Amino acid sequence: MLLLIKNYDVSIDFYDEMFAEKESPHTHYQALYDNISLLDKKIVESRYQLAQQNFIRQGITFTVYNNSEGTERTMPFDPLPRIISKEDWNVVEKGLQQRVLALNAFLEDIYTEQEILKQGVVPRDLVVTSPHFYHQVHGIKVPKKNHIFIAGIDLIRDDEGNYLVLEDNIRNPSGLSYVFQNRFVMRKLFPDLFNDYSIESLENQLHEMHEALKYIAPNQKKQPTIVLLTPGVYNSAYYDHSFLAKEMGIELVESRDLIVNNQVVYMKTTKGLKQVDVIYRRIDDDFLDPLVFREDSLIGVAGLMDAYRAGNVSVANGVGNGVADDKATYAYVPDMIRFYLKEEPILQNVKTYQLSNKADYEYALANLDELVFKERNSSGGYNMLIGPQATEEEKVIFRKKIIKNPEAFIAQPTISLSQSPTFTDEGIKGRHIDLRAFVVLNETPHVVPGGLTRVALRKGSLVVNSSQGGGGKDTWVLE
To answer: What does the pLDDT look like over 160-173, one tens digit per residue?
Structure first.
C-alpha cells in the first residue's frame, strides 16, 4: 500500500512548506516528493517504530511534570524532513545573528550604564519590575561582555512564507541534542532520502560550542576547565545536558561536585580540588546560589556569585538574562537593533499587545476570541490561551486572570503557522510547525544550520512544544 501523498490537503489558509499548490512541490522539495511517493506505508511505519525504540535505548527522553500517565517520554520523531533553501536560510541566518548581537548589547547595557532606558527606547519600568532583572548582577564585568553563550530563537512562517520571530530564549534554551539525534536517526533509517540533496553538515557544531565556552574563560586562559552544571537526573532536560557535556568533552557536574573557596570555584576530583574556569549552567537563576537567591535551593553552589563577581569564573548563559527574553521585552527587540546596531531588523516580530498599556488592554479583552494570550514569564506552552481554539470556560478563567493582573500578560494575533507533510496514522497529513534556531556567540555569532523543527502532532493544533504533545523533524539546510 503506497503512502497517499497525492491525497495530501494543501490549505489556502497557511503556508505549506512542501507544496506551492496541490501536487506541485516547491523546487527544493521535488526530489523528496518523488521519493516519498514511492515509499511503502508499512516500511515507513516499521522504521518509525525503530526510531522511537532507538530514542528509548539511548535514554533520549524528557520529563513531563504533573502527568498522570508517567513522566518519562521520548520526543516523537517524524521521518519526513523539513527542507530550507539556501536563499531562505541566508536571510534567516543574518537576521538571527543581528538579533542576538542586539540582545547581548541590551544585557550589557542594562546591567551597566542603562543608556537605552535613559533615552526612553525601552521603558524603565518594564525592565526594573521584571522578575528576571537581578540587581545582584549590576556592575559585574562579564568576560568579553558576552552574556549569551547560546540562544534558542523560535521562528514561524506566516501565510505568505515570511519568517517571523515568535520568541527569544536566552536563559537556558533546550533541545539542541535533538537536532543531532534527529539527523543521526534519519541517516540510519532513511538513508535513501539524502541521495538527491547536498545539505549543511552538523559535524563541527559542538566544536563551535566548545570554542565559544573557551572564549569567555577569565583572563583568556588557554586551556580552561569547563563544566556543565545540571540540576540532576530528574530534570526535564537532563538528556540534553548529558549529551552536550559528553560531546563537547567537558565534565557534567551537580552542585555537590563543586565548592567555592576564597572566591574561586573548584571541582572535586579523585586527585583533589581542580579550579573551574567556565560553568555552562543549566540551572535557573533563582536556584544558582543559595547565599544570593533562593536560600532553600538544594541544587545551587553556595558562594558562586562571589566568584562570578570577582571575575574568577565565567557563567554561561549570563545571570540575569531572563529580562531580555521576557515576553513583554520581546516587543522592543527591533528598537534594540536600531539603537545598538544602527540597522533595520532583518527578521520581524509578531505584533504584540502590552496589556500594561490601557489601549492594548482594552483591545485585547474585546478581542479575546481572536488573540493568543501568554503569561510573560512562562515557557513550554504553559499558561497561554489560544482564543480561537479555547473553550468558553477556559476563556472565562483566563479573562479573570488578565483583569486581576494585566501586567503579567501579552497578547498576539493568532498566526497560522506553516504546515509540513507529517507521517500520521492516517498517512501523510499537514501539521503545523515552528523552528527553534540555535545561535552560539563567540567573537561573532554562529548559527547552527537548521535547528530543531517542532511539530504539533495533533490535527489543527498550534502548540508544538514537546511537553504539550509535539514532536520533532530533521531540518535540512541546502548548500
So the answer is: 999 999 999 999 99
